[in-house]
Write a structure and sequence with these properties.
The relative contact order is 0.09. 54% of the residues lie in helices and 6% in strands. β1 and β2 form a beta hairpin. About 5% of the residues have low confidence. α2 packs across α5, α4 runs antiparallel to α5 and α6 crosses α11. By secondary structure, it is mostly helical.
Length: 330
């Protein structure tokens, strides 16, 4: 099987059969293109120890891929003179290559998977960056409070929803109007019910996240007084958040909304879309939420991913204790 055809088949597989997002498939395509380019130019070693130039791409056969190819690619990424990659970036690219080689082995194009024994360089521990509750209040308030400005109503709804749900930015801009619903409660005399958001995450996995009263009020105000203004400017679309021309709000535009609000709030810390997700998880755990509940709300496949946030709260508790307790330090 030619290497380029094998890669194309793999990309169709992850897009159609595994249902991965366009962004994930595009990332796989970029990583595997770098891998194929390196294979076509770098000398590698066959499994029998014989030198050969050009790697698997030079011979055009995916069956010639070896562990030495994969391991050599990792070494190249960490030592290349033009721009060595950080351990986390290397790990991501290696993950793409290993996913491809595992698929190739499963299809019978390779007798053995050459990627299984190759490990990425160890990355230093990096804790998520969350901002304080007070800073989050300032950030949300900086979106604007005008009740007759469609842009301010939309921006406030977007930021409130990000913080209320912990959704990734791609998940938030991917929402449709019907994804925001109210669950009726027969025992609720006022009939308000519980507002929830149906979020579609990685691998098209869906989760339902409650929408707090502040976020619900902001989204309701946007739907009633702002979204119809944007919708009248473009073709009909079910998208929840719309841009100035009536189309679905892009990730890039949502980034600009966040950056503009952070600047108006005068926050010293760097604020990104993931800041809302990190702050959502950290503030829940600080408030006593169970880590398993936070895992479900974030859509993490493993609780180990969520547990990194417990390190953040533990560090904060330690700092507060050392500062406030009279006998914490000499």
């Amino acid at each position: 099987m030619p290497l380029d055809r094998a890669v194309d088949t793999y990309l169709r597989h992850v897009a159609v059969e595994r249902g991965l997002s366009q962004h994930t498939v595009a990332a796989y395509r970029r990583d595997l293109a770098v891998f194929a380019e390196w294979l076509g130019s770098a000398p590698t070693v066959d499994s029998d120890g014989a030198d050969r130039a050009g790697g698997a791409a030079a011979v055009g056969d995916v069956a010639r891929l070896t562990r030495a190819d994969v391991a050599g690619f990792v070494t190249h990424l960490t030592t290349r003179p033009e721009q060595p990659l950080a351990p986390r970036s290397v790990a991501r690219m290696l993950s793409s290559v290993r996913s491809f080689t595992a698929f190739a082995a499963a299809e019978g194009w390779l007798p053995l998977d050459p990627g299984t024994a190759v490990r990425p360089p160890k990355a230093p521990a990096r804790l998520p960056k969350a901002i304080s509750v007070d800073d989050m209040e300032r950030l949300l308030g900086a979106a604007g409070t005008a009740e007759d400005d469609p842009v301010q109503l939309r921006d406030r709804a977007l930021l409130e929803l990000l913080y209320a749900t912990g959704a990734r930015i791609s998940e938030a801009v991917g929402l449709s109007v019907d994804d925001v619903t109210t669950l009726s409660d027969p025992e609720d005399d006022e009939g308000d019910g519980l507002a929830v958001v149906k979020v579609t995450g990685k691998g098209n996995k869906q989760r339902v996240v409650p929408l707090g009263s502040f976020a619900r009020a902001a989204v309701d105000a946007y739907l009633v007084r702002a979204r119809p203004v944007f919708a009248a400017r473009g073709a009909s679309t079910p998208a929840l958040f719309l841009g100035a021309r009536g189309a679905r709000l892009s990730r890039q535009s949502a980034w600009l909304v966040i950056q503009a609000a952070a600047e108006r709030a005068g926050l010293a810390a760097h604020v990104s879309p993931h800041t809302f997700r990190h702050s959502f998880a950290t503030h829940l755990l600080e408030g006593g939420a169970d880590v398993r509940v936070v895992q479900e709300l974030l859509g993490h496949a493993s609780v180990a991913t969520t547990q990194i946030y417990t390190l953040v709260t533990a560090d904060m508790l330690r700092d507060v204790y050392q500062t406030a307790h009279p006998r914490a330090r000499r």
